[in-house]
Amino acid sequence: MTLRFQNTESRTKQEFTPLEPGKVSLYTCGPTIYNFAHIGNFRAYVFEDLLRRYLEYRGYAVTHIMNLTDVEDKLIRTCRETGEPLKSVTARYAAAFFEDVKALGILPAHRYPAATDHIPEMVEMIKILRDKGHTYEDQGSIYFKLGTFPRYGRLSHMDLDQLRTGASGRVDADEYEAEEARDFALWKAWDENDGEVYWETELGKGRPGWHIECSAMSTKYLGPRLDIHCGGVDNIFPHHENEIAQSECCSGQTFVNYWLHCAHLVVEGRKMSKSLGNFFTLRDLLEKGHDPQAIRWVLIATHYRQPNNFSFDALDGAKQALNRLRDFRLRLGEAKGPGDALQAECDACRAAFEEAMDDDLNISGALGAVFN
RNA sequence: GGCGGCAUAGCCAAGUGGUAAGGCAGAGGCCUGCAAAGCCUUUAUACCCCGGUUCAAAUCCGGGUGCCGCCUCCA
Fold it and tell me: Which of A100, A166, A198, A281 has the most CB atoms less than 10 A away?
């Protein structure tokens, strides 16, 4: 049986073949450290942990990079409103993030590069894009000209002409300064709202756009071509689409071979929101006395491409299932029965487990094999 | 308006043409002085609805219904 993944770009399940035999470069979009991460965020990180662990289980040497976004609009607004320096805010939430990662038993990435530590790399990349004619400047800001990258849209399979500007309601269309709304910022010129948050660079006084950090940092630590790039489905467009445009226009090579995206988490059947009272950070649940391993179980037990319905009934069930496995593990260690028969059972379990996991990380099937 | 996902038991959830995995809860039992814990057994004539294709459909096709997501800085 071969390892297969559903590739967002091809929309098909493909056999996994790394660029270099035995090695996997894995880049996963990390948190914006402007607040405590919620359990929906951790659904993605736990999925990525499962992916990494299974790749390693299959014998691959994985190099896993996860970025930390430590400069963007919400952070700058927080700094402006509270007067707290950017680094102070992000240090607090980065520390909290690492605590949460540990609590959930997530293997740490090999590096967690932060955007603000890689301004020179981003500037370099933007300069290359500028030299190749993929950018234009407007009022000190630098934008990527999507018209120069005909392959744009191949990941999300969206037709740019069909997009409705501002349809999400998330972004104020009046704030666009780009020639076309679809062009995105590589470098944002400083204005008074940015306060103390700016860098003096060859590109002028300002700060990087969001998308360029992932292109610059993945290139720095993993090279211009990646085996696997992960994130939540909401990142497909525009973030990952923009990464492709930046990276491929820069390197002239295919940026990512396998795109894996996990679906969202809902709570009790509803989208998580503070107004519904179903919004939970990991620490909210831990403070209620829930077992972090049971939380991990619920987050992981639904296939990553299916919406995950988090509920407290499911959490209670996970707790019980986990207890049974823990008890079983103890008894297995003490087992003194006929060794060959026990070994045969274990081999059969392992084979069924691997067959399920090889099929795009079918964890539900794999757990079923374990319980059988 | 464009693109995409989902619907399987009280709950969670596998299963993409061959007659419904698994977990939780429930029920029965074993063990125990009683209990708890643990262990064993058991639990869907049936997969949102209506058509169609087929010897055979949860699975494929057509049409509905419902829920959810993305549409330019959301995991």
Answer: A100
